[in-house]
Design a protein that fits this description.
about 270 residues, alpha/beta, Nucleotidyltransferase, domain 5, 5-stranded mixed beta sheet, 10 strands, about 20% strand, binds adenosine-5'-triphosphate, binds pantothenoic acid, binds potassium ion, Type_III_PanK, ATPase_NBD
Length: about 270
Amino acid sequence: MKPHKHPEHTDNIWLALEIGNSRLHWALFIGETLCSGWDTDYLRESVIQQLAECQTLNDLLEKIFPQGESLTNTLPLCPLLIASVVPSQTAIWQTYPNTHVITLDQVPLKAVYSTLGIDRALALWGAGKTWGFPMLVIDAGTALTFTAADANQCLVGGAILPGLGLQFATLGQQTGQLPLVEMQNSPSLPPRFAINTIEAIQSGVVYTILAGIKDFIEVWLQLFPDGKIAIKGGDRTLLLNYLQALYPEITARLIVEPNLIFWGIQEIVMGD
Ligand SMILES: Nc1ncnc2c1ncn2[C@@H]1O[C@H](COP(=O)(O)OP(=O)(O)OP(=O)(O)O)[C@@H](O)[C@H]1O
Ligand SMILES: CC(C)(CO)[C@@H](O)C(=O)NCCC(=O)O
Ligand SMILES: [K+]
């Protein structure tokens, strides 16, 4: 998706950038309103350096979308709020003049540990402030993560495992005779007991991830019977379709929201 709105109130425009392990996620805000969100690949370092020379938001958006449409009006460069879990990328983006990198100490979540990923903290904060605590966030991204906070907005903790794409990739790359299985966007589940290699890999990865998600949700609801659960990340739709087929009651409880990190950033930037 590309920005298509033509903002009228130009003084409170800002951009949010989430630097993930696979790609970039963008949001264009006017004040508290998220006008547009979109994903891109990583940008080449030379392109990022050119951003520093941009005079207007229009120039900037043209760099971010070389083939994209641009805004009609000429707006000054706006602030860029960055949440990154890729330090080498964060450094490159500092060349943009109006950059603010969000750090863990800016997230009001209590009892965090120092190496907690900023994406996990922001997504949990955004979800909890929007739908209430206790909150469990499932991020089906490059890594699949569970991150939870109690009613006092204290981190309960969580878990990290390789995401769907990473599981397929490592099997293909680190073995002698397993093929690289592409992410199947087919909504139907693979056969449980497969009799060919590709479906055996699909079965193994998909059913164990789904069983793992179900197990974490069940334990979460034992701990916090009125706890809420939100899911985000690039594999959310695929996993939701599968979860719906296998565990419809659990799936009905899930809040699906790709922009949780942006809601977290918005909460912190705009305050209460
Ligand atoms: N167009 C796409 N490009 C890349 N990955 C995609 C795309 N569409 C779906 N995916 C899936 O999204 C997953 C990555 O999720 P996502 O984009 O949320 O991760 P990320 O934000 O880059 O990484 P992180 O987990 O560090 O936040 C991959 O496993 C992949 O299967
Ligand atoms: C787990 C990932 C990779 C998920 O994007 C990121 O949040 C991260 O690098 N976290 C640091 C380790 C932690 O959260 O405990
Ligand atoms: K790493």
